[in-house]
Amino acid sequence: MAINLFVNLIKNENKTIPNRSLGHPEEESLILREQVEAWMGEISPGTRLKINPKQDIDLISLQYYYGDSNPYRSTNVGFGISYTLPIIVAILSSPPGTLILIENPEAHLHPKGQAKMGELLALAANCGVQIVV
User: What's the burial of 44, exposed, middle or buried (CB within 10 Å: 0-12/13-18/19+)?
Assistant: First the structure.
């Protein structure tokens, strides 16, 4: 499932999110990539994404970086961050009426990150996305 969501992120990263009400309150742009980074920043402050698709070999390189830091592979950041990314992409990519099943969305997150994840899930449910946790 996560692979399809990363492909979705790459294909739609420059498109507007389908449910404008899910836009992060401090991010003016409704572009998917920027919204994902804004919500990731709520879960883990300062988190940015570096995505390099290598289409000739069907490979996606995903790295995280913080401010001016060097990019880090998923294996070199907390598991909560790499686990959270597909959840955020799924929520932000979903128009009203979509059903999303999530197991343990709070796993491996700092309590503040857990609270922000809960806020995003509640906002999505309030905007017509069906969430089953």
Answer: buried
